[in-house]
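Section 5.1 Outputs to date
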Amino acid sequence: MAEPVFKEMLVLELASVLAGPSVGQFFAELGATVVKLENAATGGDVTRSWKLAGEQNNVSAYFSAANWGKLSLGLDITELQALEAVHKLAAKADVVIASYKPGDAEKLQVDYHTLALLNPGLVYGHITGYGLEDQRAGYDAVIQAESGFMYMNGSPDGPPTKMPVALMDILAAHQLKEGILTALLQRGRTGKGSFVQVSLFDAAVSALANQGTNYLVAGHSPQRMGSEHPNIVPYGSVFTCKDGLQLVLAIGDDRQFRRLCQALGDAALADMPAFAGNRARVQHRDEVNQQLKKLISQQERAELLQELHRLHVPAGAVNSVSEVFEQPQARRMLLTQPNGPSGIRQVAFVMEGAITDEVAPPPAFAQHQSQVLGMLKNPTM
């Protein structure tokens, strides 16, 4: 019978907030035992206190975003006995996930070089804000600003705008997952552990993608365009239908644009010189959008989307988050618990032979203290 991929793996999480913990949950969903060390001197991961106005849940919604399936251990590792327990865990662990400011892990004696002496096969993943040489703490909103994302995001006549999720944290988490998985593959060949370091800033720059190369290759400095795309028209463009509901278009080639015009009842529009090719549409962006705005405003959204989908024209409804979770594709991404709120899976891929584990809900602070400390007495762990 198939078992989760990392069923025999022990992960020690020395991370807080979102980036590192989401990596820990990823491994928990794939069967690993993930021990989350929380600072007893401060009451645990700071996101436990990040509650919405009026939120009554015992475990905050924010903490629940990245902490399913873990065992919570509350210790103050500035105390010798607590540090010794962590060292014993690290000596047995396959992976450590950390998110300390540069130099702090060394002061606390939980850095890679200290732990690797206890466990040469250890894979140690460390997230920082700007790299090991820069002492600044990394905060998502600041990284969004410094990496160009805020400057590009927002309306043309509006201010730079932070994205509504901590995307820099999420990007760094994906980079760390990839680095750790690569290190595990390498360990399988060499038997040696590795130190994997990811910074939020590097992850953000890597994700500039075409906007970055628009500058590097074409000398174009990206500006705020709302949801418009600098290279393709109409792509990301939002239009309001007759019933007041909105949809977005993502036209990637001229054939799709021709089929769009057909669905809107004006096939001849695709033959007009200003509309006939993407290059022309980029040059005549405002004219294209005005024509489409007029035509789409005459359509009911559900009927228009049905026709666009039939013609394989990329388009979709602009949904609220509550509407997202009404869709079956989103419902399958949920983690559930009896008589409690759902969570969101970190594992979004499907792979033959790789099954995800049923994971417990986010733990209360130090909920598994006795269990984890008892594990240290088991020599076969």
